[in-house]
Amino acid sequence: MNETLSIPRSAGRLEGSVLKEEEPSQIDWKRIIKPFILITGGFLLFFFLPMENARFTNAVMESLALAKWYAQEHVLLCLVPAFFIAGAVAVFVSQGAVMKYLGSGAHKALSYGVASVSGSVLAVCSCTVLPLFAGIWKRGAGLGPAIAFLYSGPAINVLAIILTARILGPEIGAARAVGAVIFSIVIGLFMHMMFRKEEAEKAAAAMHMPEPEVERPLWQTSLLFAVMVGLLVSATWGKPAQAGGLWSAVFSMKWLLAGGLATVLGILMVRWMRVKFYKLIIAVAAVLISAIAIPEQPLIAFSIGLVAFVTLLTTTRGETESWFTASWDFAKQIMPLLLAGVLVAGLLLGKPGSEGLIPSSWISGLVGGNTLWANLFASVVGAFMYFATLTEVPILQGLIGAGMGKGPALALLLAGPALSLPNMLVIHSVLGTKKTGAFVSLVVVMATVSGLIFGHFFQ
Amino acid sequence: MDIKVLGPGCPKCQQTEKLVKEAVAEAGVVADIEKVTDAMEIAGYGVFGTPSVVVDGEVKSVGKIPKKEEIFSWIK
Question: A87 and which of A132, A140, A318, A326 could share a cystine (Cβ 3.0–4.6 Å)?
Answer without folding.
Answer: A326
